[in-house]
Amino acid sequence: MKKDFKTAVAQRRSHYSISKKTSVSDQTIREVVDHAVKYTPSAFNSQSARVVLLLDKEHDKMWDITKESLRKVVPADSFEQTNDKINSFKNGYGTVLYFEDQSIVEGLQEEFSLYKDNFPVWSEQSSGMLQFVVWTALADEGFGGSLQHYNELIENDVKSEWNLPDKWKLIAQMPFGHPESEPGNKEYAPLENRIRVYK
Amino acid sequence: MKKDFKTAVAQRRSHYSISKKTSVSDQTIREVVDHAVKYTPSAFNSQSARVVLLLDKEHDKMWDITKESLRKVVPADSFEQTNDKINSFKNGYGTVLYFEDQSIVEGLQEEFSLYKDNFPVWSEQSSGMLQFVVWTALADEGFGGSLQHYNELIENDVKSEWNLPDKWKLIAQMPFGHPESEPGNKEYAPLENRIRVYK
User: Fold this and answer.
1) Cβ of A114 under 8 Å from any chain B Cβ?
2) Nearest to B24 by CA among B57, B56, B69
3) Does the CB of B80 have a partner CB in chain A at under 8 Å?
4) Most A CBs within 10 Å: which of B4, B9, B20, as the mutation test of the A interface?
5) What is the structure's pLDDT at B134?
6) CATH number of the structural domain spanning residue A22
7) Domain span at residue A19?
8) A188 and chain B: CB distance < 8 Å anywhere?
9) What was the ipTM of the complex prediction?
10) Which of A14, A92, A190, B136 would staple B12 via disulfide (CB 3.0–4.6 Å)?
11) Is residue B1 situated within a structural domain?
């Protein structure tokens, strides 16, 4: 029995301790991504989101690429900590790469010049929605994941490795796997400082 | 019985034909917003989202403000169409105004200068997540809503009317109400053009 919407929203957390141990089929993971990409809204129904789902060995490759990119920019004497961090992501079973197709965004800018400056912003907002939907749906299947942003550092190598279109802009990476521990307590600011109601 | 997460995600649509006829209590609407604001994630758990919930007469006022702002910029001979559009939002019962507190974003930029350029982008992505969560949760309660962006046009008047902090940046407006008709068919691009899987 799946959780209801509000419960699923409340139970999604960032999981940094993940493993490859999973009883969920690749087909189910694929369906989670398909469903999220299909139903997450976008400005003018432009459907600018693009997703690459990397599983198992391809997932490992993704984090090896990230590690080698970081090795070039992180001082050698502090690389061990970086290495541990990237390995914690690589320990997972899969990674969702989020892109926004800039050819779609640019097409909207040309067609509706009045909103020219808005389309890139709405594209980012829509990508955020998609990231959230996949994250929560994966959690609903028992996975733990987190959201990472090594975008500029890895974008060229990632596109080259998986032969992706130039116009796909890399927005975020979501490593996921079997959660190996419960996340700690999360601090919440008082809602009365964040919400005002007038009636 | 509430819908499960995937069903709720698939059933959220844009509703433009809405009314004030509702059997959902203001308290329930308030709880939907509280829950969404609390549990939607943000970069570094910065909780930069701010929300103003306008109900009933205050909702009407919001769309009157928007109408008067538009009257100043829309040619008189094409104002009737604009007027009808704004009235379709005003016909609803409430509006959720989404803001991002720039004092939080700027604080992160100062504290973590390495990610300076990223925080405004992550703030927009997180706002997108929140918009999606509220939208879907309202739909789960039987409401229909849509996402509007009269930001620059109305921001000063809105802040002045409800005495909101200068640093709250207006991101979007979500009018909602009792859905008076079913949305039409939505076109979906083939998923094979949007998703790639490697394993």
Assistant:
1) no
2) B56
3) no
4) B9
5) 98
6) 3.40.109.10
7) 14-180
8) yes
9) 0.98
10) B136
11) no
